[in-house]
Amino acid sequence: MIDQLKGIVEQKTLTYAVLFVNGVGYKLTMSINGLDSLPSKGQEAHVLTYLHVREDILNLYGFSGEKERNVFHLLISISGIGPKLALTILSGIEPSRLKDRVIAGDVVALTTVPGVGTKTAKRIIVELKEKFIKTSDDSLGFEEGEGSGSQLFRDVVNALTSLGYKSNHAKNACKELEKKGELSGELESVIKSALKQLMS
User: Is residue 146 in some structural domain?
Assistant: First the structure.
């Protein structure tokens, strides 16, 4: 799975950027804040990514940092919020401010974001409030817990979410594997074990 890219900025638009890596141009759909954080055309950039896989399409999303990507994963784990709306939310409000608004239960502030109605705003607050309260800014988007800080854990979760599984389900499957002592070895074999765990 494509976890991150490092290359030369070839193009920047209002909704996406093109990053050239070893002769290949990757189109990265990004939030306004993420695009603003990129350097000018012709300069090198390091972008975290998420590959969204559907039957008929592959979309690669880019992020300015771990906080933005973690909050994106949390948002798309909510029923009714897809990657495009999640990016719209992240364009309208930065991750740290979003956390503050959710904890405060500020429905009005969330509905100022285009595409977010009252029902969606309330759903975001219900789904994310407890998770945000449990996390510090340094670990924004990931609950503190055994294994959640390992690179293999994150890689497996990213792979599972790109296959369409909800982020919280993917994390729970990885935690179960860890309890069994099976969260180690080659990434591909661990992903297969996690898929079996999700299907059991």
Answer: no
CA 70 to chain centre: 5
Answer yes or no: pTM beyond 0.85: no
pLDDT digits (tens, 9 = 90+) for 116-135: 999 999 999 999 988 887 76
- What residues of the chain score a pLDDT lower than 50? 138-139, 141-148
**What pLDDT does 136 receive?**
55
Q: Please, which residues bridge with residue 7 across strands?
A: 45
Q: 3-state DSSP helix/strand/coil percent for the chain, to nearest 5?
A: 50, 20, 30
Euclidean distance between CA atoms 108 and 129, whole angstroms:
15
Q: Are residues 128 and 157 in the same domain?
A: no
pLDDT at residue 143, rounded to an integer: 40
**Strands 16-21 vs 57-63: parallel, antiparallel or unpaired:** unpaired
Calpha distance 38→33 (Å, rounded) = 9
We report the CATH number of the domain holding residue 120 as 1.10.150.20
Q: Give the alpha-carbon dihedral of 169, 5, 71, 156, to 10 degrees.
A: 20
**10 and 45 in contact (C-beta within 8 Å)?**
no
